[in-house]
Structure formats: structure tokens, C-alpha cells
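Board notes (copied after class):
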Amino acid sequence: MDDAVGTLTRGTAEGGLTTGAVARLLGVAPTTLRSWDRRYGIGPASREGGRHRRWTSADIGLLECMCGLTNAGMPPAEAARAALAAAARDAPARPDEPMSRSRTPSSRTPGASPPTPGASSHAPGALPVGRARRECRGLARAAVRLDAQAMDELLDAAIDKYGLLAAWESVIMPTLHAVGRKWETVGERYVEVEHLLSWHVSSALRRAAAQRAPTAGSGVSLLACTPGESHTLALEALAAGLAQQGLPVRMFGAALPVEAMEEAVRRTGPAAVVLWAQSRSTASRALVARVESIEWGVRGARRRPAVLVAGPGWAGQLPSRALHPSGLAEALDVLAVISRR
């Protein structure tokens, strides 16, 4: 039994799930659930003590239908009417059911067939995350809905629960890859999903990085994308991971010109320089050699940086002397050793 089913089973046995638990289960911000309840009557049939929401399996089924329709691009008000109409066809209203949960059919969009409750992951517009963590599925749903608050809450919760490294590898990256796979099947339609998700991932990484001040005495790591390279998220994850260990880092981001890179190395005197290339066209062995040759310091005690190349663009054309970590975990380990020498 997977995590979602287990959570739902335990919650039902205990009289229903809290709003927070349902939000984590479905990848919806708690404030969104409360708004749907207040505006459209998509809320729990009963409340604990008259105020606290407790969601039953039937309530969650209705929510899943609502999520499936909004994921497919239907406006929330229209999705709520369609979801309630679908529920009315499946089961008669209970005599004691509140008016706000009326099952009376309404003007549903012609031809719109609400997905079966519980099947929202297969709704049109859903990202192909497969059998990923529950948090990954929730993040994918929030991304498709362009739900900024839910993405922030889910990203922060995943980093807090698993740590930055595990959250990156098991939640964030699978969701980002799902966006890429969606592009392969529908073209440019989901560009807005990728852009918003990337922005919120970047913001979450910076929030995680700000939690600890750098430790004095450690060498700085300079991180930059090669000229012409615009993909920065993996490098941002590395910067956040270093910052969480108290290691000083200078993150220069996308497409740093060669002359600016040389100047940055001379001015900061880094222990290590990491050059990220996503594609073969932006990976340059000549650039690596140029950075490796930069010296700083007084005569007789001049130093050079250790150079690491990272990213899939370096596959098959690795510079002879540069280090090439296999992933985020290895890069963090290598840079920690270099910085603390």
C-alpha cells in the first residue's frame, strides 16, 4: 500500500484527515482548500467541534475530481460545478448534508467529463511523474495548476523533511524531468509550467542557503555556467548545499563571459572553480585550461584554483586534469575537502 493510500486509510479510521494532511496528499495549498470550501462548497461534509475541518475519503474524492479539472485548465468555479455534478450522479445527497455541499447538478460545460475521483494523476495536463514520491506527485499537480503558494509550501516541506540533497534528487529533479517529458509530447504548451516551477525551485534553494552563515577560514568555491549556458538550477542546488555546510560560495549564474570569469577568479582567489555545461556546445576544454592557468597571490607563493567540470555537456570530452564529480553528492564532498584544506 503506497503512502497516499496508507495516509487516507489511517485518516478515515480516525474520523477524517485534517486540512494540512489533505493539502500534502494532493499537492494543494491549505489556503486553496479553504478558499474552495468558502467559495464553491468543495469542503468537508462535517467539522470537528463545528469548526475544524475533517476530510473523509468521499470529501477527498471530490477534491481529486476538482484538482483533475483545474489541472486540465478549467476555471475553478466551473470545475467546482462539474465536480459536484459528477458526485451527484454517483451518490444521492444525504438528508443532513449542508446546503453548501448541495449535489444539485448545475450548468456543466458541454462535453466536459469529470475524471473519476481518485484518478486525477491521469487527467489531461497531468505531468508524467510515474511512481515517484507522494511529494513529487503533489509538486507536479501544483506546477500544472500554476499554484505558487502550494509549490513554495511543498518545496520547503520536502527540503525540511529529507534534507536538501535527498529532496533535490527524489522530489525536485523528477518533477523537473516530468516537465521536460511533457514538452516532448505537447510542444511548447507547458513552457509557463516550466518557467514558474523553475523560479520557485530557485527561490526554495535560496531560502535553504540563507539558513546558515559561512564558516570563517574555509576557501571559497566559485560557481559559474560556461559562456552561452543558461541552465543554472543544478548549480544553484550545489550553491545551496555548500551554504548549508557553512562553506563560502560565489554563484555567478548563467553564461558568465570568459573575461568576467578570469576577473572573478583573480579577485576572489577561490579554492575551487566549478564550470557547468548542460550541452556539448557550451562545454569548452580551452576554457578549462584557461581557468586552470589563472594565478593570484604574492610572488613565490602564487596559487591556482582546483577546477571541477559539471553537467552532461562534458560527457565524452573531459579535460585531462579537471575533476568531474558524478553528481551533486560527490560535488559537495569534493568541494568540502578542497575548501577546508
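Comment from the instructor: The longest strand covers residues 221-225. The radius of gyration is 25 Å.
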